[in-house]
């Protein structure tokens, strides 16, 4: 097997020169040849897409993202398949495992939590497999920020409150402080900031926001295990959420939503259902 880093470099270089023809030929949601990288959704098996479910049901080998994929989903849809958790395995182990199974004629699926496109590290596995001659593709899923917003019964964009959404993560072992942009997003005022991979660092993140002079009354909601049976919502503000989360004791697997949309207050009726057609709006602006 080619060294995964060399494979990734080679695939990236090839992309710089030639566009992948499959971008033109195939659509998202289409079942294709090779190994699908499937978004399992946030947890509830019902939030797996129909295509994702069909692929998982017919798989012989399911490589999944460990505890972030609900074991109920695995029990319900692929109890007879071989199931392997990717936790603790590097590319050197995962790639030959999936390649060999695929080449021996077994149906292989790679199950990521939420959507593979958000903090999923899917592309590096796909590149390493493609370099070995194994085609891959993505089947999208419901990312946890969307499950959290559904739990909070809000919209991440909300007229008059939030015009933008940021999917972000806090500084830590894998992100340098200068690459932590949470303060900038919050400072923009009309952004709903969804913090992934930051449950353990909510206190420090809020302290930094306070030190930088952000409004301590800015709403923050933390949704632990959105869509799971043990889901819990902890609500507060930049000034209070750190202590509340500390009391609740969650250190992982939560979505932190910062901004007024988390509280669904103060929004304005949108043009769309307010005489929009009479204001000269175009069809493309009306897409909802
Ligand atoms: C490695 S990232 C994977 C994100 C995933 N690809 C997605 O689209 O949701 C893991 C982080 O996603 C968030 N997360 C995943 N599942 C969640 C859930 N059910 N409820 C809340 N947050 C979740 C947490 O912030 C967790 O630290």
Name the ligand types. Answer: S-adenosylmethionine
Structural class by sheet pairing and helices: alpha/beta
Percent helix: 25-40%
CATH topology of the largest domain: the name is: Cobalt-precorrin-4 Transmethylase, domain 1
Order of helices and strands: HHEHEHEHEHEHEHEHEEHEH
Largest sheet: 5 strands, parallel
What is the count of distinct domains?
2
Task: Tell me the strand percentage band.
Answer: 15-25%
Number of helices: 11
Radius of gyration: 21 Å
Q: Class of the largest domain, according to the CATH hierarchy?
A: Alpha Beta
Name the CATH superfamily classification of the largest domain: Tetrapyrrole methylase, N-terminal domain
Widest sheet: strand ordering: 3-2-4-1-5
Uncertain ranges: none
Could you explain the architecture of this structure?
This protein is of the alpha/beta class. The protein has 2 domains: 4-141, Cobalt-precorrin-4 Transmethylase, domain 1, CATH 3.40.1010.10; 145-262, Tetrapyrrole methylase, C-terminal domain (Methyltransferase, Cobalt-precorrin-4 Transmethylase, Domain 2, 2-Layer Sandwich), CATH 3.30.950. The chain contains 11 helices and 10 strands. The strands form 2 sheets. A 5-stranded parallel beta sheet has the order 3-2-4-1-5, sandwiched between helices. The N and C termini lie far apart (46 Å). It binds S-adenosylmethionine. Residues 42-43, 68, 112-115, 118-120, 143-144, 147-148, 196-197, 199, 223, 225-228, 252-255 line the site of S-adenosylmethionine. It holds the Pfam family TP_methylase. Belongs to the precorrin methyltransferase family. Residues 16-25 have a biased composition (Basic and acidic residues). GO terms for molecular function: precorrin-4 C11-methyltransferase activity.
């Amino acid at each position: 097997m080619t060294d995964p880093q060399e494979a990734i470099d080679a695939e990236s270089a090839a992309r710089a020169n030639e566009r992948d023809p499959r971008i033109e030929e195939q659509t998202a949601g289409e079942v294709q040849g090779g190994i699908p990288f499937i978004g399992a959704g946030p947890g509830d098996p019902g939030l797996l897409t129909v295509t994702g479910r069909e692929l998982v049901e017919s798989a012989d080998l399911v490589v999944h993202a460990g505890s972030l994929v609900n074991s109920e989903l695995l029990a319900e849809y692929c109890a007879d398949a071989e199931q392997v958790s990717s936790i603790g395995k590097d590319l050197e182990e995962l790639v030959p495992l999936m390649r060999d199974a695929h080449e021996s004629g077994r149906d292989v699926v790679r199950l990521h939590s939420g959507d593979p496109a958000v903090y999923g590290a899917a592309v590096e596995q796909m590149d390493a497999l493609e370099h070995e001659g194994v085609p891959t593709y993505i089947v999208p899923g419901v990312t946890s920020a969307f499950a959290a917003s559904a739990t909070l019964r809000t919209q991440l964009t909300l007229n008059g409150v939030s015009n933008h959404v940021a999917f972000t993560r806090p500084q830590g072992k894998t992100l340098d402080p200068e690459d932590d942009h949470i303060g900038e997003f919050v400072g923009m005022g009309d952004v709903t900031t969804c913090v992934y991979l930051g449950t353990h660092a909510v206190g420090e993140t809020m302290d930094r926001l306070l030190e930088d002079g952000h409004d301590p009354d800015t709403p923050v909601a933390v949704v632990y295990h959105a869509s799971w049976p043990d889901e819990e919502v902890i609500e507060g503000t930049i000034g209070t959420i750190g202590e509340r989360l500390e009391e609740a004791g969650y250190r992982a697997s939560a979505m932190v939503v910062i901004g007024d949309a988390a509280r669904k207050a103060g929004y304005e009726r949108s043009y769309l259902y307010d005489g929009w057609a009479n204001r000269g709006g175009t069809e493309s602006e009306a897409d909802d």
